[in-house]
Amino acid sequence: MALVKTVIDGREIEVERDRWAVEVARDMGIAIPTLCHHAAVEPYGACRLCVVEVTRGRWTWLTTSCDLPIREGLTIRTNTPAVLKARRMALELLWAEAPDAAEIQELGRQLGLEKPRFAPRVKAGKCILCGLCVRVCRDLIGQAAISFSNRGIDRRIGSPFETASGRCIGCMACVAVCPTDAIHVVDDGNVRHMETFHTDMELAECESCGRPSVPVKLLEFLRTKLPEGIPVSAVCPRCRRTGTAGKLTEVSTLAAQLGYIGGCKVGEASE
Amino acid sequence: MIKSVQELVARQQAARENFYSKKVRLGVGVGTCGLANGSREVLDSIRDEAAKQGLGYAVRGTGCVGFCQAEPMVDVLVPGLPRVFYHDMTPEKGRDLVKGLAQREFHPEWALMRLGADCLLVETERRLVGELNGLAKVPTIEEVPFYRRQLRIALRNCGFIDPEDINEYLATGGYTALAKVLTTMPPEEIIDGIEKSGLRGRGGGGFPTGKKWRSCREAHGSPKYVLCNGDEGDPGAFMDRSVMESNPHAVLEGMTIGAYAIGSDRGYLYVRLEYPLAVENLALAIRQAEQEGLLGKNILGTDFSFTVRLSRGAGAFVCGESTALMASIEGFPGEPRAKHIHTAEKGVFGKPTTLNNVETWANVPVIINKGWPWFAAIGSEKSKGTKVFSIVGKVKKTGLVEVPMGMALREIIFDIGGGIAGDRKFKAVQTGGPSGGCLPESQLDLPVDFDRLTEAGSMMGSGGMIVMDDRTCMVEVARYFTNFLQKESCGKCTACREGVRRMYELLERITRGQGTLADVDLLQEVCEYVRDNSICGLGKSAPNPTLSTLVHFRDEYRAHVVDHKCPAGVCPALTTFVIDKDTCIACGKCRKSCPVECIRGAKKVKHEIDQSKCIKCGSCREVCPVDAVATA
């Protein structure tokens, strides 16, 4: 891979060509705030929070660092007044768009915002349309159970036609990546309600304790993805922990008996 | 199937002879502009009458000749005589025209212009032998003000040939450029010529075409794609529509030449769904060209193949943006992406792609035929060639004009466009579509080219030119276009989706009389943010209408928020219409035009508006013959 020289906040560095600027900056200890960026998926460039000032030749412009490939001769500044002003405005707009999102309010306050100068959207909530849920579901999980619909000011994220999604497996990867906690899921008895996406699904019973654990559809999905011979069992997290702890205890006791635990004299193994 | 250059030349010759045959030929403009004005009925009437006459007249549908408000247009070609164009025709006039031809009655009173010896814009001449008769009174095309200053390169053939018949394109010498390229010009020479010609993208970006072709040719990846952007979404722009409807082969020929130059064997023509006639005529042209061996496999008997497929849009302005267009062709929603990696390297389907606008492609065959020095001699220093503009709005003559780059705005609007309709006062011209800026009178001497207008805060864009008079409210213009843009935004990035939305909210408050000076300042701030932080051209240029009106018409914003008045008398909440008692002549026109019947008055009794009922529509002001209706 070709190496190129770039300057970020006055520090020169040589890195592989086409690495994303935001990640190179992070490696240098320069923290650039992001919302729609996640290492697990391709950059999207939607939230506009990670903007930086880029200079090449006689041109200087603002652009997002999450999808900026490092090339020879780029000079990047991550916190000039222009950059901070732009980030502030992005947050101000997002705050007004998603008035219930605490994370946005906090980020805004950090940059000196008190409250947005725009009226909060009436039917809004926490979604900032960063698309991480959509992208993770489509590109990482491979189910594409939810997507964007409509255009412009009517853009939204949801299940197809706002009805139950046939592709959802209830894995909750979307919940895990959402930066504003905008996806609402309730587990009630042996049903998982993906309320935001109008999708309900049955939870399998734990083989050990009998309590509801993971969605049946998720187990089916795993069976299709994992090689044959790997067992896929419906064991709930608690029982799995207990089971694993038990196995570890067995192993460590045996190992101690055989004198294999380093630093421990034989006979001094813990329970 | 035409399998060699010799065959092509023979076919062109035969087609030309057929065009200038011993038969009388009548052409009726059935482009969208003509059809909208009722030309279908004119065509039918002429066909019927010609059949009745039984004299073997050839009757053809043609495209748009550019003077759209004069449609329905009919042209008559009598052997040996100049070609004559008639304007504002009706089915009855059409019938009388056909009847009269047998007696050599040419109805010069209905004629707009006559053409010289050769009307097909090729080099050879045909002989005129007949008496001009009454036609001597009809002005030549060089004398008609609308056409006099024009140089129709991209618009060649439009309105002159039948777009549904490839033979008429051949008659003009069509596909000569392609033959020349395939048999005598290596790709490097073609690209070199296009570079030296100075051709720049006509869709609005103005990127040097030769440079684009070169980087695509040098890119790694296969297959390579050649695309045509026929999305033309700007309201008020219909330049590309005219070319696609009226001269589709020019686009195909240009694309094929481009494909040969960059090493591509396939491409797409992306046409917006709102242009059904363009889609039809292009589809037919593709079929006919393939049948003749001028498109598809082994073109002109060589081993070069190029296949083109039509891809239809589905009603999204943003799909005119290059990366969104490519996403749309791939079957995804039209969403732009950051362009750090150029589409010339990785475009549609992740392959090297050359995307050019319809008008750009249409220029290519002419540059090949006439040579790049000829093209580079036209236009201004950095903007070579001509540009097609659609002049619309409050101007006397609306339509499509093509002029050398560098002509002043004033000349286009006043000399060609005839000045302001109703002889009212010029106020502003918006150039470059909904993302274009508005320029006031003081900027009218600016030359129109890629760079000068951009420096002045507007842009040439795709060539839309909307003329506005003193009864246009510039704040309302900004609000109108911002509303369009907030709905057409793809919604991906915060800056455009949320920024343009908030711009609209502020503009709406201001036009409703609820705005403050602080709102105007916030509007400026949001505009600058959207301009500098959006992913794509839609967002980046969305603030142009607002920013340019804030610069050139700030006093109007002040009037709205400080004085609570709309000086142009447009915004209902800030307008009061009052009839001046001294000027009123009690003719009653206003009373009759009022849709809510709120004007009291009678013959010899001065008229008065009941303010409690008035809806501020302004029709009384429009119809008053003595300008007695004023804004208070």
Layout of secondary structure:
The complex is a heterodimer of chains A (271) and B (632).
Chain A (H helix, E strand, L loop, with lengths): L2 E6 L2 E6 L4 H7 L23 E6 L2 E6 L9 E4 L3 H17 L4 H9 L21 H10 L5 E3 L6 E3 L14 H5 L7 E4 L2 E4 L4 E7 L6 E4 H10 L11 H21 L14
Parallel strand pairs in A: 1-5
Antiparallel strand pairs in A: 1-2, 3-4, 3-5, 6-7, 8-9, 9-10, 10-11
Helix pairs in contact in A: 2-3
Chain B lengths: L4 H15 L5 E5 L2 H5 L2 H15 L4 E5 L11 E4 L6 E3 L4 H12 L8 E4 L30 H4 L17 H6 L4 H9 L2 H11 L11 H10 L6 E6 L8 H8 L1 H15 L3 E6 L4 H16 L15 E6 L9 H8 L23 E5 H13 L1 H5 L9 E8 L5 E6 L4 H8 L9 E6 L6 E3 L11 H4 L8 E6 L4 H15 L5 H18 L5 H17 L3 H5 L2 H9 L1 H8 L15 E3 L9 H5 L5 E4 L2 E5 L9 H5 L5 E3 L1
Helix pairs in contact in B: 3-4, 7-11, 7-14, 8-9, 8-11, 10-11, 10-12, 11-14, 18-19, 19-20, 20-22
Q: Would you kindly provide a written description of the structure presented here, covering whatever features stand out?
A:
The complex is a heterodimer of chains A (271) and B (632). Chain A is built from seven helices and eleven strands. By secondary structure, chain A is α+β, with helices and mostly antiparallel strands. Chain A folds into three domains: 3-110, Ubiquitin-like (UB roll) (Roll); 132-221, Alpha-Beta Plaits (2-Layer Sandwich); 236-271. A five-stranded mixed β-sheet of chain A has the order 2-1-5-3-4, with helices on one face. Chain A is globular. The model of chain A has no long low-confidence stretch (mean pLDDT 92). The longest helix of chain B is centred in the last third of the chain and has 18 residues, at 494-511. Chain B has 632 residues and is an alpha/beta fold. The mean pLDDT of chain B is 93. Chain B starts with a helix and ends with a strand. Classes of the chains: A alpha+beta (271), B alpha/beta (632). At the A-B interface, strand 4 and helix 2 of A face helix 18, helix 19 and helix 20 of B.
